[in-house]
Amino acid sequence: MRPFLALAEGLVRAGHDVTLAALDKTGRDSSRFAEKGGFRLIPIPQAGPPSQAEADREWRRLLFAGPLRQLDLIYQAFDLDAEAMLTAAEALCAENDLVLGHFMVHQLRAVAEKNNIPLATLVPIHTALPTAENGPFGLPDLGAWSHKPAWALARYAIGRVVLPRVNTLRRQLGLAPDRDVLGQSWASDRLNLITASPSLCPPPADWGRQHVMCGFVDRAVEPDLEPVPAEIEAFLAAGPPPVYLTFGSMMSLSQPYSRETAVLLREAVRLAGVRAILQVPDAEFPSDADCLVVARSPYAQVFPRCALVVHHGGAGTTQTALRAGVPALIVAHIADQFFWGAHLAKLGAAAAPLKRRGLTAWRLAEAIRRAVTMPRERAAELGRAIAAEDGVKVAVEAIGRLQP
Asked: In this structure, what DSSP letter does residue 182 have?
């Protein structure tokens, strides 16, 4: 959600009229950002939440599944809101000269194609774009000769999950079926904005001109819109920099799972013997002198004042923590989180990653104890490089060149 808010503001500053249609599963109210940024925000109605028992069962299935099964389960969740997404796509294409959407929202791509509206995509998972320079993340890299067949295998496997959904809608709209998810369903032939920092992941030389690695895209820090809560300010001032623990959106899908994970995290903090800020959805989970429990916080303002950030490895949280110049410990759950965990450790900006599946409080505590002794220089160096980039500016300029 945050990259789209940042892009909406940037496009307004560049003189464009902007409408942002958003389905935010976290339930956050972003109207204050729209009011400040001067764009129209239209919430997309989402399907009613499943029962707690259903949500807990599906989330645990997701954690224990293999990559393709995880992708199928993610799309099953998307299927619940498919009609609402289609309605929103039709409204956007009827009212605008150009549309921009998340690369997995195939409804917008299909409606834009049907109406001959230029489409750009936002791609936070850059590992979904094929390149001869490396194979798909998750498959063994046996050298340059293996990359082409590995991508062919990935195309086939992902296509079995995604293409039936994509092509059902395309047939309804009278469009030719897609044959390649990675090159068609998930990619615009006009413009794909990859929101990864080139300081972390230099763009492959064989990407076409339609792929623009614009860098990390986020809003500027505005304390008046996102103030640091008084309880966090007091805790930060009361002792040495704490460890911040958050699994972000990975904690919002099942209340039983979230409570169980909160207990695990709290016990890990106790065993590690560190001061900590623990972010969990249940704000009533008890705090004490050494562990402050919060429901959320403005990361960009709080992370720089921490000793370590323990997080799930989502692309946004990864780059926010690194831009703060703080080492990380990534506990990967799904998808590209495993890439970020391995990549940041390779760069020397994070400890060796862990997997959420099978995680214990003792293992996490041991990892935290090691991670807080890491030198901060490499994380600080990369943080300065990311902070010097202007992903919003690069993206807005690329969109401007795309306009009819």
From this structure: I
Going through 255-297 in order, the beta strands assigned E by DSSP cover: 276-279, 291-294
Which residues are 131's β-sheet partners? 134
Q: In the structure encoding, which two tokens stand for residue 180, read together?
A: 């390649």
pLDDT of res. 140: 73
Lowest mean pLDDT among 144-153, 230-239, 349-358: 144-153
Q: Which structure tokens are listed for 221?
A: 């820090």
310 compared with 28, residue with greater pLDDT: 310
Task: List C-alpha distances in Å: 94 to 39, 120, 158, 191.
Answer: 17, 16, 31, 20
d(CA 240, CA 261): 25
Which residue type sits at 241? P
Query: Looking at residue 252, what is its pLDDT?
Result: 65
The model's pLDDT over 216-236, given as tens digits with 9 standing for 90+, comes to 888 777 777 788 999 999 999
- Rounded CA-CA distance 283/201 in Å is 36
Q: Taking a C-beta distance cutoff of 8 angstroms, is the pair 190, 120 a contact?
A: yes
Residue pair 100/63 in contact (Cβ under 8 Å)? The answer is no
Whose tokens are 């002792």? That residue is 239
At position 358, the amino acid (one-letter code) is G
Rounded to a whole number of angstroms, the CA Rg of the chain reads 21
Instruction: Note whether 325 and 281 are within 8 A (CB).
Output: no
Q: Whole-angstrom Cα distance, residue 196 to residue 391? A: 9
Quote the mean pLDDT of the chain: 89
Query: Checking phi first, is residue 109 left (phi over 0); if not, alpha (psi -120 to 50) or beta?
Result: alpha
Quote the longest CA-to-CA distance of the chain.
63
Cα separation, 177 vs 99, in Å, equals 21
Tell me if 395 sits within 8 A of 193, measured CB to CB. yes
Q: Over 90: is that where the pLDDT of 212 sits? A: yes
Using alpha carbons, list the distances in angstroms from residue 34 to 105, 108, 110, 199, 275. 22, 21, 27, 30, 36
The pLDDT confidence band at residue 29, using thresholds 50, 70 and 90, is: confident
Of the listed ranges 50-59, 236-245, 346-355, the one predicted with least confidence: 50-59
Q: Where are the alpha helices (DSSP H) in 315-354?
A: 315-323, 337-347
- Domains of the chain, first to last: 2-46+81-216+389-402 (3.40.50.2000), 230-387 (3.40.50.2000)
Q: Which two tokens stand for residue 140?
A: 């063994």
